[in-house]
Amino acid sequence: MNLSYVLGIVAGIALVLIIFIILSKKTDAIPVFGTACQYDERQLQARGRAYKAAYFTLMICVFAEAFADMFLERKLFTSLGGLGLAIFVSIGVFAVTCIIKDAYMGLYEKIRGTLITFFIIALLNLWCVVLAVVKKDKLIENGEFSYVIINIGIVILYIVIMAALLIKLRLDKKAEAGE
């Protein structure tokens, strides 16, 4: 691994931590360093079912990859990028399931700070994808996904989560107005 990649990862983690700290001070929406989210009993049960769905989704992805590797002799998903995609799919299943069951946000969390943070993370990763395209990095190298797919997966994941949150927020407002 190249030193510039390691430094880029460290800089990205530092930037995300700084953003979390700033947003948590301003909006109290993002718990940082020991402040736990509080969920009611119904939310905890829904989150447990969402964890279960995410786990089985990840297992299905891993078995599909093993099947493709064994019978189709395709090693596309055994790379870091490919395995990252499987993880992103399972995280997406967890997040969307929690959002649908109204168990994603804690009792005292505000959605605004979460959406801002997710938008910034998606933008930063989109910027990495643009830089990779400008550098003409390949998406698939030697029959395996390259590291670029990780950034693409993160962008897609956060867009899906933000869309699910906004749709749920809109549906909840319509339901309140209809009552």
The number of domains: 1
Q: Return the string of H and E elements.
A: HHHHEEH
Strand content: under 5%
Helical content stands at over 70%
Strand order of the largest sheet: 1-2
**Separation, N- and C-terminal Cα atoms:** 58 Å
Structural class: mainly alpha
| Low-pLDDT runs | none
Average pLDDT score: 82
How many E-type strands? 2
Number of helical segments? 5
- Sheet having the most strands: 2 strands, antiparallel
Q: Quick one: overall form? A: globular
- What radius of gyration results from the CA coordinates? 18 Å
List the helices and strands and how they pair.
Elements: H1 3-27, H2 41-71, H3 80-100, H4 111-134, E1 140-141, E2 144-145, H5 148-178
Antiparallel strand pairs: 1-2
Keywords:
2 strands; two-stranded antiparallel sheet; mainly alpha; 2% strand; 179 residues; 74% helix; globular
Could you explain how this protein is built, in words?
The structure is a single chain. The chain is an all-alpha fold. It has one domain. The chain is built from five helices and two strands; from the N terminus they run H-H-H-H-E-E-H. It has a two-stranded antiparallel sheet. Strand 1 and strand 2 form a beta hairpin. The longest helix has 31 residues. It starts with a helix and ends with a helix. The model has no long low-confidence stretch (mean pLDDT 82).
Quick summary:
The chain has helices at 3-27, 41-71, 80-100, 111-134, 148-178, and strands spanning 140-141, 144-145.
